[in-house]
Amino acid sequence: METQDFLSGCWHAASFRVRYQESDQMGVVYHSNYLNWFEIGRTEMLRELGFTYLDLEKKGLLLPVLSAELKFKRSAKYDDTVTVYTRITSYTPLRLAFEYEVRRAGAPGSGLDGSESAPQGFKSSADGELLVSGSTGHAWVNREFAPVRLDRTLPEIYGGIRNALREERGTI
């Protein structure tokens, strides 16, 4: 198997403000919303790499979640600006794994407090107060949920994601 060193570099950042419906009466974000935020992170990361879930599904390819792990450090609250940092930690013809950090806004003027545009795209480091970290594991499957080898079934997608990751990381 080829080296995965190029995966450990940059984080993809997707920022947004916590919505009212994501919090409870105390203004604290309900725990299951972090899984939704992880999905936002990976969806936006794949989009920036040049591939959308819709594109994959049109080609008969699905990427279901096989495992999810979350570690809660602090709570996000209603109206906080948060950034979901996402990176791919494993990429093979059969599986894909992501790592996430959800962070609260930094100091005023940092671009994370809502006073400026929040970070989007690829970053070399994650900024802000760590709230939740986690990971998800996925498998490439067809519409019948049978496993597929991406490099054989859709080599243009496999190579395209791999090349896009190389370009973002600058190494391999």
From TrEMBL:
Domain Thioesterase: from-to ranges: 26-105
Q: Name one GO molecular function term.
A: fatty acyl-CoA hydrolase activity
UniProt keywords, alphabetically: Hydrolase
Q: Which Pfam families match?
A: 4HBT
InterPro entries for this protein:
4-hydroxybenzoyl-CoA_TE (IPR050563), HotDog_dom_sf (IPR029069), Thioestr_dom (IPR006683), YbgC/YbaW (IPR006684)
Q: Which family does it belong to?
A: Belongs to the 4-hydroxybenzoyl-CoA thioesterase family.
What is the official name of this protein in its record? Thioesterase superfamily protein
